[in-house]
Amino acid sequence: MLRERLHRQLTPGAWPDSGLSPINRVVCVLILLASLMAVLETEPTLRQAAPDMFFAIEAVFVALFLAEYGCRLYAAGEEPRYRGISGRIRYVFSFWALIDLLAILPFFLAFLPFNNVFLLRMMRVLRILRLARLGRFSRAWSALAEALHARSYELLLSVGVAGLLLLISAACLYVVEAADQPEAFGSVPRALWWSIATLTTVGYGDVTPITPLGKVSAGITAVAGIGIIAMPTGILAAAFSDVFQSKDHKPERRHGAGEVER
């Protein structure tokens, strides 16, 4: 059946061979090309030199993506949970279907009667988010989601420790530097900018303590920042290792004589 063939071609998990199906490979190329054109369109000299060309190319990409979206909506009926009208509605509000829809909407939103320059720029930038659609075809995205879920408690703990250290360092600098630099450290919220820049080891240098106690506090914050930044890195590295090891050691399922699928 046509729906079955489309489902096999468009759904990465339904493709029986290794890698992506031919249609999904074409879709990936179209996503990369569309994102490249969205980036190039932000250059004023190129946009002024060929404004109609960019619009025509974008219209072609949107037509192709609309056709793909319709085919995915039709092929989704191969899965029991997406069959029927209610199932199709459930599919439309699924995560990847919403991503597909958001990749198309900016083209039509550009026709709305507004002259705000910021909104026009936002419409152009939203087209770059089409790159997120590549996550559907990548094993790394699912591994990332599994790793974050498996280590959510540890990651939240590291975020809480970082936030506490930010607040403490900002409060310390407020106490020792507020009298000498009221513009930069006159309140805890003002000192938070310096604390964030220092704790993340960025150190812009636009705000620096000048008192001896302030420099000591800044040194402690900078050293502590190294450990705070390293905490989530180590947690995620261990989580990724566990996820990939579990995937590599999954038992094999035999489908027939001489045919083995991992």
Quick recap:
Helices cover 71% and strands 3% of the residues. It is mainly α and 262 residues long.
Order of helices and strands: HHHHHHHHHHHHEE
Give, in spatial order, the strands making up the sheet with the most strands.
1-2
Percentage of residues in helical conformation:
over 70%
Kindly report the oligomeric state of this protein.
Answer: single chain
Q: For the residues shown, what is the average pLDDT? A: 81
Radius of gyration: 26 Å
Largest sheet: 2 strands, antiparallel
Strand content: under 5%
Alpha-beta classification: mainly alpha
**Which regions contain 5 or more consecutive residues with pLDDT less than 50?**
252-262
Report on the structure:
A hairpin with a 2-residue loop joins strand 1 and strand 2. The longest helix is centred in the last third of the chain and has 37 residues. Helices cover 71% and strands 3% of the residues. The chain has a two-stranded antiparallel sheet with strand order 1-2. It has 12 helices and 2 strands; from the N terminus they run ααααααααααααββ. By secondary structure, the protein is mainly alpha-helical. The chain is extended, with a radius of gyration of 26 Å.
